[in-house]
Amino acid sequence: MALTTQKTSLTVALVGNPNTGKSTLFGALAGVHQHVGNYPGVTVEKKTGNMEHAGRSYELIDLPGLYSLAPRSRDEMVAVDVLLGRREDCPPVDLIVCIVDAGNLQRNFYLVSQVLELGIPTVVAVNMIDVAARRGISVDVQRLERQLGVPIVAVQANRRIGLPALKASISAAVDRQPHSAPSPFPEVFEDETSRLESLLAEHFVEAGRHQPLPRCLVRRLLLDMHGYLAETLLGIGKGQTVQNLEAARARLADRDCPVPAIETTARYEWAGTVLEGVVSESGREQTSGTDRIDRLLTHRVWGTLVFGLLMVVVFQSVFVGGESLMWPIDAGTEATGRWLEGHMAEGALRSLMVDGVIGGAGGVLSFLPQIMILFCFLAVLEDCGYMARAAYLMDRIMVRVGLSGKSFIPMLSAFACAIPGIMAARVIENERDRLTTILVAPLMTCSARLPVYALLIAAFIPERTYFGGMVNLQGLTMAGLYVLGIATAVVAALVLKRTVLRGEVSPFLMELPSYKLPSPRNVVYRVVQRGWLFLRCAGTLILGVSIIVWAALYYPHDAEVVEAEFQPQSQQLQRRLDALAVGDPRYAEVQQQRVELQRAIQGAYQRQSILGRAGRIIEPVVKPLGWDWRIGCAVIASFPAREIVVATMGVVYNLGEDIDVESPGDTGRLHAKLHAATWDGTDPPRKVFNIPVALSILVFFALCAQCAATLAVIRRETNSWRWPAFTFGYMTTLAYVGALVTYQVGMWIGGP
Amino acid sequence: MIDKAIPLSGLSVGQLAYVRRISGHPDHVHRLEEFGLRGGTRVQMFRRGSPCIIRMAGNKVCFRADDLLRILVEPETASS
After folding, report:
1. Given phi > 0 = left and psi -120 to 50 = alpha, else beta, which region is A120?
2. ipTM score here?
3. Which of A143, A593, B12, B19 has the most CB atoms at less than 10 Å from its CB?
């Protein structure tokens, strides 16, 4: 929240290669004072925190992991912009903490070299010295500090060793002048930089800009072939400068100094000098625990088998564990509903509270445990380093679809939620691959589909177990829906890569981090964060839509029009009831008739409500899928967000239907209501739901793009309305056809 | 020197080698270099195939070569 004009705290940015323990160090420094958000305009996660030391407060910014400051992907662009003080939402950086892996100093110092050029005070934190020592690598930190001329602190972020020294070093370095590093580049290159610098300065004066570009940026401009910096730094008069840049690069190539190769050559040479005599290796190559685990987990047969088993365990746990944790929430919402029903006067407000709020948003709440269990598994797998192995195993399959293993991680994240999945696709450098991944990621079974799946599966799929209780039919159905999503995504990707997004397969390079025990702190933090997001969503969007759905289903509540035709019948029943003694056997019968009449009246109210009319208009369209108009309504209402469907069904099947909810064998209230639902105007009443209908709804929800947030993120990530429109179109078509086939085939096999 | 160079995929499991040359699109090659995979880097084959897993500077890296990007390596003479 710090403003650039009145700085109350100093800003410290954490920079480093991926897998160097940067986030762990950030967590150790910031403690509980963390805040995770997004950089506005781009979907890059922004992590900030606060640290106090020696009477001063610091705002810490954890930047995405980088191999280089040459911006290619979105994360890198954001990181570079933050470091250069070019983001309005981030105060200028006062100090950089560059974290490096003791076991791989050479590569890490490539980034250090780029960071030192920025002219910002820098502290280098050498992490994982203990891990390196176990591999026989020792680092002479004092010598490194002498040769580099920048404060260096050895830390073990995971064990919180060296933190006081690091904090002291930060507060000392903040007041000092930045280190002025001699350029690692050859003279020829520096000459071209000077030439460009003066050209640009002239240009800037003409354009009326006062501040010339600092030299380090001119250098970056010359080195970055992707044009991102040219785009953002120059603005007006770009064309001429780009020509100048190209001419300068051509001259450099002629003089044996080709861009971009010169950057790696020069910087690694510099790193070699700085690291001279610092690292000593004992030379013994020993098999680490990670290697032993990898022998199994990356094995073609065993590794794949373990992967498959792991997925089964995850989904079984989500379902079984979620189910058993659901009932207290269910019981709580139900009790609240009953209490309100008993304590409020009958009317629109009571109906709103009981049917709209409690029945709607409250119904969604009970899926919180499942969502948290799934996120817990994902966080553990990611944190222990298994995800990269899964990506390796999946590359073989993904390459056949025309994608790489890198697309697998976004897709796996999409199992939790399509939005982080689509955002995770940022790491894919190939634009066509990235786009394909984004377009098929929403087909993965996200946690928002879980409520629908859980509700319908628990209500309609028989509870049978096989193999001595290890596998149950409900779990298998769930797994089947996941497979359906994956299979459809594969086919969709294949088709996309063969048609609209044709292009060559790009090279695939990915680091496999060492295994480590997942940090409970990270896992708990991520699970709580996700759970909170869900609750907030339930509290705002879902609650809002529940209320709108309730209103659309309640109004116009015209008693005269609706009840008039039932009036004579109602009065007749009342008279008969008055005439009978309470103990009379016919009394219960008449009572029952009255309940049925009541239900008919409520049905009439629903039918002439706004949503009811809309539902009946589309009924001919959804009837071939086996749906009545109420399901149609629920589906229409859930287009903004699919998890709403549970709330909507709660409202649609709840409203005033005072049916017997105590039927044995049913756990949830909504389950019972769904079981009791009948088609309008059928005599004897025909049940709406049977297995083919439930499956048809399930398939529809598996394939449909019912998530406004996902479409908005696709719009933002692709910078065009074309792709979200395309996604919505193809997924909705697939969903309809899939549901149609499911219902028709289901009815043909099983009958009604 | 050059004639001893073989494609990376020619290494057997556990064999150590030095990267001699990386050829391909300059941008892809540059990316590999920034990643630490460049001429002179010592690598060890961990799992062959496509993609393969190699070990370099203590880290494991998963890599799939293609027609456009080739890594030529020179096996260490005293390889076991």
Report:
1. beta
2. 0.91
3. B19
